[in-house]
Each structure stands twice: as structure tokens, then as C-alpha cells.
Amino acid sequence: MEEELKPFWRKIFNFDWKFGLFLILLICIPRFALVLQANQTANYSWLGLIMFISAIVPFLFLSKKGRRKIGLKKPENFNWVIIAIVIGLVFSISLYYLGVALYGNSFENWYYYIGKSYNIPAGIDGEGKLILFSVMALTGMTFSPIGEELFFRGIVHSSMATSLGDRKASLIDSSA
User: What are the residue ranges spanned by the domains of the chain?
Assistant: First the structure.
């Protein structure tokens, strides 16, 4: 019978709360420090890397059975994936216009605040800004939510739930 962890990691860990705690310490402490640093320096470049790492953690540690256990599987119907993307775009655009309607271009507008928090190099032309925005937006919109779902509600929750139960695992991973 196949185990949740890949053979190399099974020599070191069991798929239990200790493994979940190890992952929280491995990812969350550096992430917390990087967020604090980014808020002070407006340099968010390392945050993209930690988001990417959290997204690939299930592929590094888990076997095929383990990935299925955390709910990571090929969609049965890709039409729902396209519908979900369209719905996400509609809500994102709606939130943008809601922010503009309520707060205009002030720092109370969440999109304006986030946009102004990035440290854009002086002298960059319009095309350079577009490229920089595209890279940052793609990284942020892809690896932040996907990485968090795969990491916290996937591998961390599932590993802790095997030994602590769903309720305690939910409290721990949501606290992290």
C-alpha cells in the first residue's frame, strides 16, 4: 500500500502533526519575516519565491496517494475551471470599480494602496512598467492563493488531521 509521503521523506517523517509543524516552521517563519521586511522596504521580490515554494511543497513531499488525499487531482470537467476563472475575473474587476467608487485614488482604495506599495524603479518606461506589473501580478495571483490552498488547507491540514483530527488541525493551520 502506498504511503502519503515519498519514500525519501518517509525515512525522516510520518504523515502526522510533527510533519505539519515542520512545514509550518519551514515556510511560515520565513514568510512572516519577508512580509515584515517587504512592508518596510517595499521590496516584495522574495515573497513571490516563498509563495512559489509553498505551492510546490506537496509535489516535493507527497506521493501520488498523498496528493490525492489533500484533494490535488486532475479536474474531471475543464469547463468548470474556465467558469471559475471567468467568475474570478468578474469579481476582481467588480472589486476594482467598487474601490474606485468608494475611495477614488486615495490610500483607502485597496488596489491603489497595493499598487503604491511596490517600489518601482525610477526612470522605468511604460513598457517596462507593464512587464513588471505582469510578472508581479501573475506571480501574486497564481502562487499566493494556490500556494496557500495547497500548503495550509492541503498538506499541513491533512498531515495534522491524521493524528489530531479535523477540528484541531483546522485551528492550527488557520492560526498559522
Answer: 7-175
**Rounded Cα distance, 24 and 15, in Å:** 14
Give the distance from CA 7 to its chain's centroid.
26
Taking the model in full, what pTM does it have?
Answer: 0.74
Tell me the C-alpha distance between 168 and 92, whole Å. 33
Kindly state the cell numbers that stand for 80.
468548470
Q: How far is CA 62 from the centre of its chain?
A: 18
**Residue pLDDT, tens place only, 99-121:** 999 999 888 998 888 777 766 77
- Beta-carbon contacts of residue 107 (< 8 Å; ≥ 6 apart): 113, 116
Residue 73, phi-psi category: left (phi > 0), alpha (psi -120 to 50), beta (remainder): beta
Rounded Cα distance between 153 and 44, Å, is 24
